[in-house]
């Protein structure tokens, strides 16, 4: 006997037993079936709701990251363009003694500009 024949015999025996069930048992089986179907539908609804929240959370996180990088790049541009002189001072290989009297040199430049 192969698997196909065995399954046909089992199926036939089960069908015969179902036909011989009383109405009370059939009613309980029918209610159990409907309850199982309702639970399955509720699980699907719950999963779709979770998927919706997950999608919304992912979108919110993406918007947050994009906005952070946009504002971060503006801060970098401001530093890059506004403080070039200080960066040059820090990066230079000149002796720092000259920079200790930087106020004097700035005053001297202002005086020369006023003289012209």
Lay out the secondary structure.
Layout: H1 3-19, H2 23-82, H3 84-91, H4 97-100, H5 102-115
Explain what you see.
This protein is mainly alpha-helical and 116 residues long. It has 2 domains: 8-82; 83-116, no CATH class. Helices cover 89% and strands 0% of the residues. The protein contains 5 helices and no strands.
- Counting DSSP H or I runs of 4 or more residues, the number of helices is 5
Total individual domains: 2
Uncertain ranges: none
Protein structure class = mainly alpha
Q: Strand share of the residues?
A: under 5%
The coarse overall form would be rod-shaped
Helix content: over 70%
> How is the main sheet built?
none
What do the pLDDT scores average to?
Answer: 78
Spell out the helices and strands N to C: HHHHH
Number of strands: 0
Global Rg: 41 Å
Amino-to-carboxy terminus distance: 115 Å
Quaternary organisation: single chain
